[in-house]
Backbone:
C-alpha cells in the first residue's frame, strides 16, 4: 500500500457529533501545531444544529504557509458513527483512518487502500474516569494524545495549552493530562510512530496571531469608537456582536463609575437593527450592525433611506450560502450584487472586502471613517469562512495618534461662521455636503431629514429639476468615493497576458494557485479587490491583460457582473472561476479553471484539483 | 389648508422663559386637509413646548410615513426632524436616543404606521421603555392613499364607501397597557384643554410615554356611521380626569375639592396633577386602569385622559447602565483602548 510521506504538509479531518465537546479538543490540536511555529489553518464544517448532528473540523498544515483549503484528506479521525461511511470514502488512497476501536469496525467500512488506526477511546476513558460525561468529553483528548504520538507533536506544547485553557478550572488539568497520556501510550504500545506524515518544529509563524474574523471585526468597531451596536442574531454573524460585547465590557467600562461607554441593542429584527444604527449615526454616535444575507435583504429599505438622506452607517455582512435560508452554516460570497445595489430606486453603496482577520480589524475601523466622510452606508463584506474560523493573521496594530475622521460635521462654532447652511448644498464641489448633529446650536443648523426628495436646504420638493440636481450630486459623490475607498493590491510582473482577479477569502487559494501555476510555467498577474466602487487601477489592470480570470464564491459570477456593469468591460474578457458548494475554495479549483486555457500545460500537470497533497506532489509530477 | 399666513406678529406677544414667542415653535405651513385633526394636535404640541420653554434644538422630532408623519414639518421648525420609513420610527428613535440621552424625543405616528406596518417596532419600543413621547394621530383610516380602513378602525364602523369594517380593532392604548407601557394616555384632537397638559406630562416622563389621540379624518372618515368622526367621538368621550402640569418652580395655587385630586411628582421634580372625574380611579394602579379601560370599551365609551402612569419609571439607558454623558460626546480618549491594549489582545491569541 502507498505510504504518504511529508513533513508539515497534510490535511486532517475530525468527524464529530455536535455538542460533545470536540471543538475544544480540535482547537487544542490546531493550536499545538501553531505553537510549534508551523503554518496551520483550521476550518469548522458544522450543521445548523446545536446537538446531535455530524460536524467536522478540518486542519490543513502547510510548511509553505498556504492557508486556503486543500482537497484530499490524509488523515480522518472519525468518532461519529453517523457519518462513518462517507468519512471512510473521503480519505485519499494511502491515507489514514483513525476510529474508536472500543467496538470492532464493521466490514463495510474496510478499504484496502487506506491505513486503519484503531484507538479504543471510550474504553480507555471508562477505565480512567468514573462519570459518563467526563468519559465523553475526555475521549476527544485521547485522540489528540494519539495524534500527538503519531504526528510527532511536542507533548509539552500540548500540555502548556491545556494548562492555559483550564487556568480557571485547575481541577480539570490533571484529568486532561491523563487522557492525553493514555492516547500517547496506546500508540506507543500498538503502532509504529511517528507516521510518514509528520510535523516538525519551524519558525514560520513569527509574531502572527490566530483569531477569527468576527472577533477582529468587533475589535475594529471598538477601536473606531463605535458606541451603539444593534443586531438581530443570525449565523454566521452572531459572534461579531458576542465579541463586541466581550471586548466592550472589558475595554469600555468606565473604571471610576462602572458605567458603560457603549450600548448594545438586540433588536426585534434586522429592519429595526438597521434603524437603530441610522438613528444613532444621525445623532452623532458611531454605530454598526452585523448580519448575513437574509438580514441585508430585510435592511434594504433602511439602506435606501441612508443612501438618499445621506446618513452614515456601518454594516458587517458575514456572508453565508444563499438564496433564502440557503446553507446557513456554509460559506459563500453571494451577497455582492445585493449589497452593491441594495434598495429600490437608483442606489449604490461602497463595499469593503477583507481577506484576513487583520483586514477585518482594519477595514471595520476604516468603514466608520469612510461612512462618516462619505455620509453613506458602508458594508464590510466578510464571509463565514473568514468570520467563524480561526486564521493565521499578522498581529493587529493601532496608531495611537490617529483621530477619527468624523467627516463634514459643523459644530456650533462653525455654524456661527457659515453664511448659510444648506444640508444638501455641494459647498466643496465633491458632492459631499455638510451636516449638523441635533442639539448643536440653539438657532442655526437645524434641518429635516427625510427619504423623500428635497432641495439643497432639505425642504421637501416634488420639483423634477431639484430632484435631478440632487441625484446628480449623489453621482458626483460616488465619483469622489472611488478615490476614498482602498485601491486594489496588484502583484506580478505586469508582463503576463493573463490576470487573476479575486477578493476576500479566495485570496488564500488564489495565491497558492498562482505559485503552482508559476512552477508549471503559467505566469499570471494578480489583482485583489479591496473595495467597491472600483477605482482606475482596477480598470487599468483589466485593460492591460488579454484575459482576466475572476475568482469568486457564488454561482452567478456576481463580481464579474459588477465589473462589467460599472467598468463597461467586454464580457468575453472576463473568465469566471466559481466555487459555490459551501466549502471554502481550493487552489486546485483555480488551477483547473486556468489550465483549461492552457491545454499544453494541463497535459503535463494533470488535474490540479486532485494534485494534493499540496505542491510537493505537483512538483513531483512536473 | 391655508396657503397664506401673515408674517406680522404683535411686538408684545407673550414670551416664554427663554424669551421666545409661540411663533418660534411653529413649523412650515401645513399641507393637510382643512379641518384635519392632526393640525390641532400639532397646535397642541407647539403650545406645550412653548409653555414649557423647551429649547427647540434640545428636542428631536421623529416620524414614520403617512399624513400624521408629515406633521413634524408643521411644528418646531428649529428642531432637527426625521421623517423615516413607514412604521420604522421607533428603531430610528431608539438609535437617536442611545446616541444622546440628553435630548427630548418626540415621535409622531399614525394608526397605519403604528398598528399595522410598524406594529413590531412599536411593541418593542414599549418593551424597552425608550425615553420618548410617542403620539399616535389616530383616525382609523389611511388618508394618503384615500381612505382605506386601518387596523384601529372599530368593528362595525362604516367608512366613506358605506362598508362596515368586519375585523377586530386594535386598541393601541389597551395594547400599550398590556405591554407594560409606563405612561398611557388618550385624548381627542378637539380637546386642547386636556391634550396640552397631557403632552407636557408625557415630555417629562422618563420612559415610553404613549398618547393615542383620536384625530378625525375630515376627508375620508368623518361620515355618519364612522366611530372616528368628530360627532361620534364628542358624543362618546369619557374622561378619566382633568390633567394639570405644574413645572418645577411654579407654586401650586389651584384649589380643588378635597379627595378628588392627585399629585404625581415626576423625575425632574415637576408635578402632574390629576383631578379625578371618575370615582375609584387610580392612574397609578395598572390593574385598575386596565380593567377600567376594558369596561369603557365594552360600553362603547372612549376613555380619555392619563389612563396609567408610573412616575418612578426608568428608561432604556438605566437598564443598559450607559454612561451619564451622551455617547455622541465621547471622543478618542474615551473610546479607543490604544495600541497597548491591542498588544495584550494579540498575545492572548498566540
Residues:
Amino acid at each position: 500500500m502507498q505510504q504518504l510521506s511529508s513533513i508539515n504538509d497534510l490535511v486532517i479531518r475530525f468527524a464529530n457529533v455536535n455538542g460533545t465537546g470536540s471543538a475544544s479538543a480540535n482547537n487544542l490540536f490546531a493550536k499545538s501545531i501553531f505553537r510549534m511555529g508551523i503554518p496551520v489553518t483550521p476550518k469548522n464544517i458544522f450543521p445548523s444544529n446545536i446537538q446531535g448532528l455530524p460536524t467536522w473540523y478540518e486542519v490543513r498544515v502547510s510548511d509553505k504557509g498556504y492557508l486556503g483549503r486543500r482537497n484530499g484528506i490524509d488523515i480522518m479521525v472519525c468518532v461519529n458513527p453517523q457519518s462513518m461511511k462517507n468519512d471512510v470514502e473521503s480519505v485519499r488512497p494511502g491515507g489514514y483512518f483513525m476510529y474508536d476501536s472500543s467496538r470492532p469496525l464493521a466490514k463495510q467500512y474496510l478499504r484496502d487502500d487506506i491505513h486503519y488506526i484503531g484507538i479504543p477511546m471510550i474504553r480507555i476513558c471508562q477505565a480512567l474516569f468514573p462519570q459518563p460525561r467526563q468519559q465523553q468529553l475526555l475521549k476527544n483528548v485521547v485522540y489528540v494524545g494519539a495524534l500527538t504520538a503519531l504526528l510527532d507533536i511536542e507533548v509539552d506544547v500540548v500540555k502548556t495549552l491545556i494548562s492555559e485553557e483550564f487556568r480557571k478550572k485547575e481541577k480539570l488539568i490533571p484529568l486532561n493530562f491523563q487522557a492525553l497520556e493514555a492516547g500517547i501510550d496506546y500508540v506507543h504500545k500498538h503502532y509504529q510512530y511517528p507516521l510518514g506524515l509528520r510535523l516538525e518544529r519551524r519558525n514560520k509563524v513569527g509574531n502572527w496571531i490566530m483569531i477569527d474574523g468576527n472577533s477582529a471585526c468587533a475589535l475594529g468597531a471598538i477601536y473606531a469608537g463605535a458606541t451603539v451596536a444593534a443586531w438581530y442574531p443570525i449565523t454566521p454573524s452572531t459572534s461579531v456582536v458576542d465579541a463586541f460585547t466581550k471586548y466592550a465590557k472589558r475595554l469600555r467600562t468606565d473604571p471610576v463609575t462602572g458605567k458603560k461607554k457603549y450600548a448594545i441593542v438586540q433588536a426585534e429584527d434586522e429592519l429595526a437593527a438597521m434603524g437603530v444604527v441610522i438613528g444613532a449615526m444621525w445623532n452623532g454616535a458611531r454605530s454598526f450592525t452585523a448580519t448575513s444575507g437574509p438580514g441585508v435583504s430585510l435592511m434594504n429599505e433602511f439602506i435606501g433611506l441612508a443612501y438618499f438622506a445621506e446618513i452614515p452607517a456601518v454594516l458587517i455582512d458575514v456572508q453565508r450560502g444563499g438564496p433564502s435560508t440557503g446553507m446557513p452554516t456554509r460559506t459563500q460570497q453571494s451577497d455582492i450584487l445585493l449589497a452593491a445595489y441594495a434598495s429600490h430606486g437608483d442606489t449604490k453603496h461602497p463595499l469593503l472586502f477583507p481577506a484576513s482577520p487583520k483586514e477585518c480589524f482594519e477595514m471595520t475601523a476604516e468603514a466608520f471613517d469612510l461612512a462618516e466622510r462619505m455620509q453613506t452606508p458602508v458594508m464590510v463584506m466578510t464571509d463565514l469562512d473568514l468570520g467563524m474560523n480561526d486564521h493565521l493573521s499578522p498581529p493587529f496594530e493601532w496608531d495611537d495618534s490617529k483621530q477619527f475622521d468624523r467627516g463634514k460635521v459643523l459644530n456650533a462654532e462653525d455654524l456661527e461662521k457659515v453664511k448659510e447652511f444648506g444640508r444638501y448644498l455641494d459647498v466643496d464641489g465633491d458632492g459631499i455636503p455638510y451636516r449638523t448633529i441635533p442639539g448643536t446650536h440653539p438657532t442655526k443648523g437645524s434641518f429635516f431629514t427625510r427619504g423623500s426628495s428635497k432641495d439643497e436646504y432639505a425642504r421637501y420638493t416634488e420639483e423634477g429639476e431639484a430632484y435631478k440636481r440632487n441625484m446628480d450630486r449623489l453621482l458626483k459623490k460616488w465619483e469622489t468615493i472611488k478615490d476614498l475607498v482602498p485601491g486594489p493590491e496588484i502583484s506580478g510582473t505586469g508582463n503576463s497576458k493573463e490576470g487573476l482577479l479575486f477578493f476576500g477569502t479566495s485570496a488564500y487559494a488564489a495565491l497558492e494557485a498562482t505559485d503552482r501555476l508559476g512552477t508549471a510555467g503559467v505566469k499570471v498577474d494578480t489583482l485583489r479587490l479591496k473595495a467597491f466602487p472600483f477605482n482606475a487601477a482596477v480598470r487599468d489592470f483589466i485593460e492591460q491583460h488579454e484575459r482576466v480570470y475572476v475568482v469568486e464564491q457564488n454561482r452567478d459570477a456576481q463580481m464579474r457582473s459588477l465589473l462589467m456593469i460599472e467598468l463597461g468591460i467586454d464580457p468575453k474578457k472576463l473568465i469566471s472561476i466559481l466555487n459555490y458548494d459551501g466549502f471554502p475554495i481550493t487552489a486546485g479549483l483555480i488551477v483547473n479553471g486556468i489550465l483549461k486555457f492552457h491545454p499544453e500545460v494541463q497535459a503535463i500537470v494533470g488535474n490540479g484539483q486532485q494534485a494534493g497533497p499540496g505542491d510537493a506532489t505537483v512538483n513531483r509530477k512536473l | 389648508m391655508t396657503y397664506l399666513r401673515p408674517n406680522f406678529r404683535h411686538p408684545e406677544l407673550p414670551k416664554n422663559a427663554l424669551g421666545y414667542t409661540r411663533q418660534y415653535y411653529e413649523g412650515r405651513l401645513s399641507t393637510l386637509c382643512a379641518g384635519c385633526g392632526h393640525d390641532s394636535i400639532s397646535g397642541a404640541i407647539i403650545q406645550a413646548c412653548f409653555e414649557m420653554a423647551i429649547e427647540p434644538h434640545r428636542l428631536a422630532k421623529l416620524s414614520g410615513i403617512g399624513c400624521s408623519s408629515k406633521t413634524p414639518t408643521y411644528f418646531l421648525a428649529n428642531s432637527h426632524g426625521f421623517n423615516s420609513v413607514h412604521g420604522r420610527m421607533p428603531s430610528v428613535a431608539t438609535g437617536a436616543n442611545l446616541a444622546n440621552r440628553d435630548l427630548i424625543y418626540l415621535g409622531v405616528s399614525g394608526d397605519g404606521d403604528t398598528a399595522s406596518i410598524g406594529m413590531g417596532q412599536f411593541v418593542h419600543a414599549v418593551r424597552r421603555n425608550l425615553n420618548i413621547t410617542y403620539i399616535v394621530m389616530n383616525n382609523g383610516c389611511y388618508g394618503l392613499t384615500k381612505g382605506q380602513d386601518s387596523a384601529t378602525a372599530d368593528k362595525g364602523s362604516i367608512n366613506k364607501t358605506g362598508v362596515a369594517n368586519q375585523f377586530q380593532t386594535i386598541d393601541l392604548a389597551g395594547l400599550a397597557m398590556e405591554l407594560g407601557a409606563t405612561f398611557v394616555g388618550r385624548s381627542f384632537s378637539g380637546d386642547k384643554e386636556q391634550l396640552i397638559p397631557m403632552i407636557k406630562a408625557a415630555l417629562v416622563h422618563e420612559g415610553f410615554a404613549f398618547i393615542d389621540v383620536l384625530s378625525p379624518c375630515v376627508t375620508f372618515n368623518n361620515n355618519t356611521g364612522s366611530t372616528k368622526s368628530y360627532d361620534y367621538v364628542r358624543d362618546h368621550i369619557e374622561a378619566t380626569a382633568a390633567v394639570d402640569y405644574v413645572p418645577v418652580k411654579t407654586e401650586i395655587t389651584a384649589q380643588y375639592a378635597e379627595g378628588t385630586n392627585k399629585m404625581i411628582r415626576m423625575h425632574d421634580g415637576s408635578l402632574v396633577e390629576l383631578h379625578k372625574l371618575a370615582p375609584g380611579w387610580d392612574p397609578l394602579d395598572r390593574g385598575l386602569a386596565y380593567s377600567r379601560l376594558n369596561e369603557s370599551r365594552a360600553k362603547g365609551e372612549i376613555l380619555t385622559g392619563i389612563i396609567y402612569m408610573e412616575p418612578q419609571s426608568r428608561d432604556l439607558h438605566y437598564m443598559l447602565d450607559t454612561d451619564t454623558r451622551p455617547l455622541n460626546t465621547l471622543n478618542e480618549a474615551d473610546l479607543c483602548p490604544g495600541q497597548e491594549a491591542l498588544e495584550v489582545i494579540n498575545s492572548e491569541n498566540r
Remarks:
- Residues 608-622 of chain A have pLDDT under 50 and may be disordered.
